[in-house]
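Consider a typical record:
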Amino acid sequence: MTDTTTLATTTTAATDIVILDAPPPADRNPARVYVASLSTAVSRAGMASNIRSVVAVMAPGIDPDLFPWSSLTPAHTAALRTRLQEPVEPGGPPPAPATVNIKLAAVRGVIHAAWRLEQIDTDRRERMKDTLKSVRGSRLPAGRAVAPGEVNALFRATADGTPIGARDAAMLALLIGGGLRRAEAAAVRTADVEPDENGLTIRVLGKGGKQRQVYADNGGGLAIADWLKVRGPEPGPLLCRVSRRGVVSPRSDMTPAAIRLRLVRRCEQAGIKPATPHDLRRTFVSELLDAGQDIASVQRLVGHANVATTIRYDRRGERAARRAASMMHVPYVAG
């Protein structure tokens, strides 16, 4: 079973892949079908980017919509797996296994979509999938945990008495007090926030459309409650846009990208090393585990499907290693 889309007579310089002479309809393009099947906008954007980078490796300079996924063979996918593990720059380091594996996962998803569209048969699909197995290896964990003093500095940077400061304090409360992903924080609506006996309960829509509850107690709950007083009761996104003049737009969503940029700006104002929203999420996990919380409870709070993912967010080992290293006396005298 192969697709009948007409092929161009030219091939790419790097491979024997024959490029389509016209893009197929979206519902016949396995890459577009696969991306459309993903449940969240963040997942769709991420996998679309990975697919574009794979096409750039296999057919440099070609429009991704002209890439002939249904014409690939196991030889093509085996060569791709090898090339994805090569250094991006000559003499440079090889890419991290996790970076390679996410691209391989994207290709597996597209190949499966091509099979469902009856553009490739089962035997070819299985042989290609066999050549696209994940690579082994590990790297030091990405990101960092944010120290308590840095967290204090971040919140002090928001205490400027402005609507933007109040909004950013609520943003930090969601990221570090609730361990939310930036896309999750952007998606919280005012209707998702309810008071309880200890503070606030917040309904969060996570990956795969899975809903969970997080809790904003003590300072985190106060920061969100203070922001709601400034924002007003109008339905809409909890973290909404605020103009430089302090005009609040309750119906205008603050995007995940805007959340990242605001955190970068607050790190600069606080005089601390740059941190990402995911660093605050790692900090949330590490601090709860350090406080004696069981990992299953922490896993539920952050919405990880697998406890192994939660374990990778734990940065307590780095602190212990640094303390241990500091106990080693090196008898060097400066000068």
About this structure: Residues 7-131 form one domain.
